[in-house]
Amino acid sequence: MLSIVRDIWASTLIISSLPLVFNSSYSIKGFLLVFTLTIGYVFGFALNDYIDREEDRLDPNKRQKNFFVIYELPASLLIIVTLTLIIGFIYVFLLFNTEGIIVLAILMFGVYSYSMKPFQFKKRPGFDIAIHGIFVQFAPYIVVIYLMNLKFQNIDLLILSVLLLSSISGQIAGQLRDFEIDSKHYTTFAHLLGFKSTLRVYRMLQFTMIFISLYGFITKILPIIFLPIFLVGLVFIIQRPVDPSNINRYSKKINTILGVLAIMSLLVTVLSINLLNKY
After folding, report:
1. What is the DSSP letter of 225?
2. What is the domain partition of the chain in residue ranges?
3. Angle between helices 139-147 and 97-115 (to 10 degrees)
4. Which letter does DSSP use for residue 152 in this model?
5. Is the pLDDT of residue 69 over 60?
């Protein structure tokens, strides 16, 4: 669970905050939406780990990362926590009227269909990449723009392109990392394409993300004050472990440090924008 929180909370918080920052749109409603999306994404990843707990028991590395393998929690407690969170989600999204409930339903379908039967898209090559690509990093950004009725700008198109590629590459990195253990249970996109070919695709996605970001800075679509966030994101992309032999050497503290740095970078960016608007 700690690995889930470490990986997803900071990225979702930052991604969903960016549209508000770009538009200098700060309100209780917006903050509630960002907070709810962050909690919701942690919940979604936790649900995925809960569904995978029996398979993860069989792998030494996954066994150490899955909270639900390490700790046996009463089903009644899990049900109470889940229902409480869902009620909270409904309450916040009701603030955005019918559109909010429709968006929540779509997001919940994404969580359900990725992890649970009868869909379990994570075990269906092609769908595993598509669902992860759309829902993990791309969705929270576009949800905030839509529900907060913000103006769609060139910077949003550029960032959404990077987020989509980043989300897809994150899924591919996980499939490469778990290539052997996953092959015992189901077939993924990486299994169909082969390890080496998938690794080449992954490197190409990395290069494309960096190229798009640099293009944004050169053309000034991305203001230079966003450079700190870009650099933190760049380090995160480069250091993702994809070689199964390197997993034990991968420091669990890296993502925590990057998460803190990213939050600090976001705060500095917000402060810089406010100062520029003031003067």
Report:
1. G
2. 2-278
3. 170
4. P
5. yes
